[in-house]
Fold this sequence. Notes:
Elements: E1 10-14, H1 21-34, E2 37-40, E3 42-43, E4 46-47, E5 57-61, H2 68-81, E6 85-89, H3 101-104, H4 112-121, E7 124-127, H5 130-136, E8 143-145, E9 170-176, H6 181-186, H7 188-197, E10 202-208, E11 219-222, H8 231-238, E12 245-248, H9 254-257, H10 262-270, E13 274-277, H11 282-285, E14 293-295, H12 298-310, H13 312-329, H14 332-350, H15 361-402, H16 406-470, H17 473-488
Parallel strand pairs: 1-2, 1-5, 5-6, 6-7, 7-8, 9-10, 9-12, 10-11, 12-13, 13-14
Antiparallel strand pairs: 3-4
Amino acid sequence: MDTSPLPIKNIVLYTNSGDDSLAVLRVLGPARKLGVNVIRGVHNSQINVDAVRAGDVILVQRDFPLNLDAYEQVLALARSLGKPVIFDLDDLLFELPENHPDRLRFHFTDALLPMLQAVMEADLVTVATIPLREYLLPFNRNIAVIPNYLNDDLWQFNSPLMPVTGEGKIIIGYMGGHSHRPDLLLVLPALLNLEKKFPGKILYQFWGIEPPTELAPYSKVDWCPPGSLLYADFVAYFLTQTADIVIAPLGDNLFNSCKSSIKYLEYGAFGSPGVYSRVQPYSDIITDGEDGFLAATLAEWERYLSNLIESRDLRIRVALNAQRKIKENWLLSQNAHHQLQVYTDAVTQYSKAERIDPPAYGTIKSLTRQLTAKMQSHKREIDLLTGKILEDYDNFGPLIDQSIDPKSTIQTLKVLVAAQTASIDALTNQLAAQKSTTTTITAQLGESNQRNLELASQLEEREQEALSYALSRSWRITRPFRNLSRKFHKPGPR
């Protein structure tokens, strides 16, 4: 490798990616390996346009042009200072499949026209694969391929000879984000058939993505969601994991054909043999049956996985071959100087290059400006509504807070209703008892009234008899004798 002094000492990086896999694989890792200083043009979401002055090369990455005003200021300042602007793109985001989660969520939609504008006006476009270069050539004739290499400052190679502890089960692992769900579903029938073919012998291990519902009973999930978006943290975590076999399904479409083979390199360092879809990028790097398996049909997926499940020797041989290939051809330490040479050539040729705007460049730029202005208008409206909502929350927050937990509120109401119901039941019982007492008293009162009527009738009869007797002759004849009798019966002194 030529160790003579090169003019690139400082790269100013404008990216929305922080220290995730995109920035580390494409810029930060290679620069650190070469001793090139990377100056952050974005820090804590704040864009420093003036950082352009400190760089030999200005590197704009992926969706940064979404910040259109800042991007165009960066471009204008770089041009005025005679510094080349390089636009780096690792995925064909202009051709996301219709069922891709990022397309369904409109994740990159607002950035597409600004990115296309950046492709057209950059002094150099760097991409990860040849198919991506071919797609972009009509928009810019200065496009260089800088492959993604395995950063051996971060990755160590796990030994395939070490036994994997899966409690007697074969672990089949898959590492990927939620955007790969359509790819994973492509091989679901084959994975379900394996469970039937080897009942109780397989454990599916997922890192990042949740397993399909059908596989959940046979699966384990880790790193979901990831504890950190830092690529170095992911690498350190992943190297502590284990799997007997790994899989990398990928749909056969234009977007995927332009991707890099980085997952093959990471799986290889991980130390597990893999089965991959027979599509670019994997078909460009894998020797089928030697350092990996390429499957085009569900039958092939099932057959290759079955062979690996049944033979530990096959697993070890394929994994060792993959590691040998990676160590010979795909380590960053052996290839970073190529990337620096690309940047150096860009600086050398910048002063000689004659800018020729590609067809429709003016139209794309005009559309980008109009749509960005509309989006900014919508953002201002959203900010105003957000401010109004926050203001309303300050006024009604206490009331809102009381209803934040509907389950708790419902439970409280249930307790109150139960207490009210118990109180009503108690009062009802008391009322029933009082009614019973009232009925008894009423009955007794009725009996008493009847007895009083009978006594009154008897008294009336006696009074009538006495009156009749008093008016009779016998009363007058016997009266003197009753007086004499009282005298004789007069009690004496005691």
